[in-house]
Write a structure and sequence with these properties.
The protein is of the alpha+beta class and about 550 residues long. It has four domains: about 240 residues; about 90 residues, Immunoglobulins (Immunoglobulin-like), CATH 2.60.40.10; about 80 residues, Immunoglobulin-like; about 100 residues, no CATH class. About 30% of the residues lie in helices and about 30% in strands. It contains ten helices and 29 strands. The strands form eight sheets. Strands 23, 25, 26, 27, 28 and 29 form a six-stranded mixed β-sheet that branches. Helix 2 packs antiparallel against helix 3. The longest helix has about 40 residues.
Length: about 550
């Protein structure tokens, strides 16, 4: 792809010559025929520009392909080519934006903004802006507006500066003194023209020479020519950069066999599938791959091996890849592997108990050997089951003490499809959360010192030896005092009332207190439940 002399095609040479002739004719007269000639040249330039774009895209595509094969070798040159692509695209956008400003300034407009019913005449000149919109060129013979924009508003000077920056950028990638470097510098030259004695010895700038007193269509055509010069320079530079890549680095000098299986663990009744291929590939020829003496079906240079999984166990397999070397001889490369076949099974187990409890979140662990968690679908016949990460949470809807109506069932989506297979199921019993115990100072009954009783604020509900962090709160209770007198008082919370505390101060050793009508409500969402009475003897 490299080039040394930056050659121009005959077509491009002809276009350049036509542009020079037409420019000379402008000095004589801006006739309809001259304007029409500029239209023809600009259309031809546009076609040439499209061809150059396609060529450059192919070269950049070659960089991408080479980088995928050997990033270490290609990265330096691909990075430089990517910079050329960015700088070129930026400059081309600036030129297209300048064209758009000229066309709009001379009364042109985007076809997308045309009035309803507008029909474009095939002979009408057009151009495109940086967004890809087609612009209709009007007042092609306008001499004043282009000069105002390019000379007075100094857009030509800005363009000259940008071309110079781009030219120096490309030259920095090329060897000092090389023919290609000199040709690109000449191709993108923006220096002032020499003083011509025939033209009165008047000194002209590059801007005046190219843009002053020129009709709109001539300026548009010149900008198209500059675009082609820029992208031709891009072609030559990236071709040279591509040629710097050591092509020999992409020739494989070591071959080996590779086996990639969709899974080494399959279920009974399914198929084991694996791809067997050579780690280095020549697209001009395919290897022969044999397993058990049988040739495999080839797909994109890879052999596809399939075998039915008819029984449980571990099964080794092996074969040979036969590859033809440059001398035409087949070289064998052996390979081997194994796969496992297991029965469809699912493991379903509660993580904290052997039953499910009503009204609370019950963590459940579900797994199927050889199947990823995200490929599992779990159903629950008595309530809801929700996935939390890799585990599940079951929320029963009703009591099922015998486990006849509560089942967790597991399905698996196999081989990346929507097809589901039943992996297993398990029945569960559903019980109510056991009632808590009412306590005072952590005691559920027995003897209690008067001082300890007076130090407590109320009665609390405790779930003894229960794995869930479930809270209950006393909502009411009655206390009966016995001794020299009998008195019963009530509380509508878990706190002792002032009246009850007053009786505590009158208790004597041997007095009995009896607490019943105890109700407690838990955060399981179930109604308040009665708790067993408790009693204490004061000591």
């Amino acid at each position: 792809m490299g080039t040394k002399n930056c050659p121009e095609t005959p077509r491009q040479k002809m276009i350049n010559m036509m542009y020079l002739v037409l420019t000379a004719l402008l000095a004589l007269n801006v006739s309809v025929e001259v304007l029409e000639s500029f239209r023809v040249v600009d259309a031809s330039l546009t076609q040439t520009l499209n061809n150059v774009n396609r060529k450059n895209d192919q070269i950049y595509g070659s960089f991408d392909a080479a980088y995928m094969q050997n990033p270490t070798k290609v990265k330096e040159w691909k990075d430089k080519a990517d910079q050329v692509r960015i700088k070129t695209a930026d400059l081309i956008i600036k030129i297209k934006d300048l064209k758009e400003q000229l066309v709009l300034g001379c009364g042109g407009f985007p076809l997308k903004d045309a009035e309803a019913g507008f029909i474009l005449d095939p002979g009408d000149p057009t151009t495109t802006n940086s967004k890809g919109d087609t612009l209709l060129i009007k007042r092609e013979d306008d001499l004043n507006t282009p000069s105002e924009i390019m000379i007075t508003q100094k857009k030509a000077t800005e363009l000259r500066t940008n071309i110079g920056i781009y030219r120096d950028f490309l030259a920095a990638y090329l060897e000092e003194g090389s023919t290609l470097r000199e040709n690109i510098i000449k191709q993108l030259d923006t220096s002032d023209p020499r003083v011509s004695l025939k033209e009165g010895g008047e000194k002209k700038t590059w801007e005046i020479e190219h843009f002053e007193g020129k009709p709109l269509i001539a300026v548009i055509t010149l900008l198209s020519k500059i675009q082609i010069d820029i992208q031709n320079a891009e072609t030559n530079v990236i071709s040279t950069l591509y040629g710097q890549i050591d092509a020999a680095s992409f020739k494989f000098n070591r071959l080996g066999a590779a086996v990639i299986a969709k899974s080494t663990y399959v279920l009974e009744g399914d198929e084991f599938e694996a791809e067997v291929f050579l780690t280095a590939e020549d697209t001009t020829q395919q290897p022969e791959i044999l397993v058990g003496g049988t040739k495999l079906t080839m797909k994109n240079g890879k052999g596809i091996y399939k075998v039915p999984a008819t029984k449980v166990g571990t099964f080794p397999w092996k074969g040979t890849i036969r590859y033809k070397n440059p001398e035409g001889n087949y070289i064998p490369y052996d390979f081997q592997g194994e796969y496992q076949v297991g029965r469809p099974t699912a493991t379903i187990s509660p993580t904290k108990m052997n039953v499910l409890y009503l009204g609370i979140d019950n963590p459940i662990s579900v797994s199927v050997p050889g199947v990823a968690s995200e490929s599992l679908e779990v159903t629950f016949s008595n309530g809801r089951i929700i996935k939390n990460g890799t585990d599940w949470t079951a929320v029963p809807a009703k009591i099922d003490g015998l486990g006849k109506n509560t089942t967790i069932t597991v399905y698996a989506k196999m081989n990346g499809t929507t097809e589901k297979r039943l992996m297993g199921s398990m029945p569960f019993r559903v019980k109510e959360v056991p009632p808590p115990l009412a306590t005072i100072g952590g005691q559920n009954g027995g003897t209690l010192r008067k001082e300890d009783l007076q130090a407590e604020d109320g009665i609390f509900a405790e779930l003894k030896d229960f794995d869930f962090d479930l809270k209950f709160k006393i909502t009411q209770f009655d206390i009966s005092f016995s001794g020299t007198y009998v008195k019963t008082t009530s509380s509508k919370s878990n706190k002792f009332t002032d009246e009850q505390k007053g009786f505590f101060s009158k208790l004597t050793p041997g007095s009995l207190i009896y607490i019943d009508q105890i109700m407690a409500k838990g955060d399981d969402g179930q109604p308040s439940r009665p708790l067993a009475p408790i009693s204490f003897k004061i000591k």
